[in-house]
Amino acid sequence: MGYFDDEKNVEAYVKMAEGYDGRALIDVLKKHLRNGSTVLELGMGPGKDFELLAESFQVTGSDNATAFLDRYRARNAAADLVLLDAAKMNIDRRFDGIYSNKVLHHLTRVELKESLKRQGAILNNGGIVLHSLWYGDKEEEMSGLRFVYYTEETFGEIVGSEYELMEATRYTEIERDDSLYVVLRKR
Description:
By secondary structure, this protein is α/β, with parallel strands linked by helices. The chain is 31% helix and 31% strand. The longest helix is centred in the middle third of the chain and has 14 residues, at 109-122.
């Protein structure tokens, strides 16, 4: 059983995430993708960023926890949502962009490398990837969840040759420079 298969953990996450969204990250994505582009969001959680993405893009939301998908479908039955494991990327659709906000840090470094490779396979040529992660060079587990931190260098070591690195920028979410976003373009 995964951490977010427990409704108490889902509820705790929803409360913890109040007041946070990826508006600034989505503004970065808008610089690289034209309005109306197709975007896959990995790990949509309660759906805040999904709604912001939908203002500019044709967005497909995904999560590996059915509880998040079910909760969002109860509010918006017409939303394009899929159950998706971000490590395996088991989806046969193609997209202009892929976005995640503090999701891929739950994967091991090996899983992230494989995920990025698979993401490249479902991106249209010239497609854009924007992922945010916690900044640092450590791994830890909290409440049964893995957290892998990245620097510009450690993330760069994982990126395959199918991508061009467009941006790797530190930013502040809670503490000064505690986060990193990376923008990649499929070659």
